[in-house]
Amino acid sequence: MPEQEPRVRVKNFAEVPCGYTPALAQLEARRCLQCKKPKCRDGCPVEVEIPAFIALIVEGDFAGAARKLKERNSLPAVCGRVCPQEDQCEKLCVIGKKDEPVAIGRLERFAADWEREQGESFTPPKASPTGNKIAVVGAGPAGLTVAGDLILQGHDVTMFEALHQAGGVLVYGIPEFRLPKKIVQYEIAYLQKLGVDLRLNHVIGKIITADELLQEFDAIFLGLGAGLPQFMNIPGENLCNIYSANEYLTRSNLMKAYLFPEYDTPIARGRQVAVIGAGNVAMDAARTALRLGAEQVRIVYRRSRTEMPARLEEIHHAEEEGLEFHFLTAPVRCIGNEDGWVTDMECIRMELGEPDASGRRRPVPVPESEFIIPCDLVVIAIGAGANPLLTNTTPGLELNKWGYIVARDENGATSKPGVWAGGDIVTGSATVILAMGAGRKAANAIHQYLTNR
């Protein structure tokens, strides 16, 4: 897929990949072997009929391909951009055993974009009204999937979102150059067109409790996400210009600091930036810092390149854009000046020991290997936890030792009757498509519960 040149794109927030032309999409689609028993479909958490939509692209029926995608995926333009296809559907592609797998994600993006650009949005038929009312708490990927599925099955769906804009991590976490916000808003407008009642600025657990919602609604889905920042707990971490990735990206993305001066949202702009972590969030923060004018951006990661959790495409783009990677390196303390602003970070070299609970080799400090990295801005991207605001006000809701909601893998049912949950509030920080898969299972279970009741 054509992309912006690295030297050009680091100075703007426009999307990096330019998208397929119809001719390029058909050329790629023809590589699909149309397997009788397609393994690629088994790798998709929402079970998209992958060979079927690709065959429609080959035929030139792009509208039909978009409709086929929407039978199973309510956010195809989003998933085509941010899902880790290399670890899911494309990983199981037969062609991938000897060659590059079929670019399923890019073809998904093409079909969804073509439909949007042509203004031919397909609205599937809805079942007859059931009279049942469902509350969906959180308008992120899991909640959006639940809302889209249940509204088509004839239920009334009301979605409560704490922020002033729907989308969850899609709008506050993922930068414009990876996922343009107009695409997210288009997908949400599609759900509203189906009849979903979206209520913004509603902090459930604060203005109203889950138990109070149960008095008004027949079932509740909790898709709160994992938005509680985690820190390193090292000396000097409270110095000025040390941000959680959550706040840094929220200021840039949701509050549009990247559009200064049109939006005058304050955000720190460092010359020498250190980003701690090596997941997709770390890549997003580091590449954002570059576009906000940083001269040097370092990724500091305590394990090796092999253990990096970020998508291969994100790592590739980051390297092209000039990010520096400091592997087997762990921060020990942050150093500041007399006015309280960070100026340096002391780090220590690491070596890999035996695997830990995650299956990755555990990093072990190398004695007397400390060294200094200069930095005037630090962004900490080492994960996020469960915000306790709703869970602390919901008696009878079982939580695990990390504060995440305990829910059944097969259907998202919680310990509280009439309440389901899915996405990052259950699994911890994971991918968009896994959250959508959890939403799909929960929606099916809620529909069955309401129908059999």
Structural class: alpha/beta
How big is the Rg?
A: 22 Å
The portion of residues assigned to helices is 25-40%
Which shape, going by the Cα principal axes? globular
Q: State the helix count.
A: 17
Strand order within the widest sheet? Answer: 3-2-1-4-16
Query: What does the average pLDDT come to?
Result: 94
Largest sheet: 5 strands, parallel
Q: Low-confidence segments, ≥5 residues, pLDDT <50? A: none
Kindly report how far apart the N and C termini lie: 50 Å
Q: State the total count of DSSP E strands.
A: 16
β-strand amount:
15-25%
Describe the structure.
- The model has no long low-confidence stretch (mean pLDDT 94).
- This protein is 33% helix and 17% strand.
- The protein is α/β, with parallel strands linked by helices and 453 residues long.
- Helix 4 crosses helix 7.
- Strand 1, helix 8 and strand 2 form a beta-alpha-beta unit.
- The chain has a 5-stranded parallel beta sheet with strand order 3-2-1-4-16, sandwiched between helices. Strands 6-14-7-8-9 form a 5-stranded parallel beta sheet. Strands 10, 11, 12 and 13 form a 4-stranded antiparallel beta sheet that branches.
- The chain has 17 helices and 16 strands.
Q: Nutshell version of this structure?
A:
With 453 residues, the protein is an alpha/beta fold.
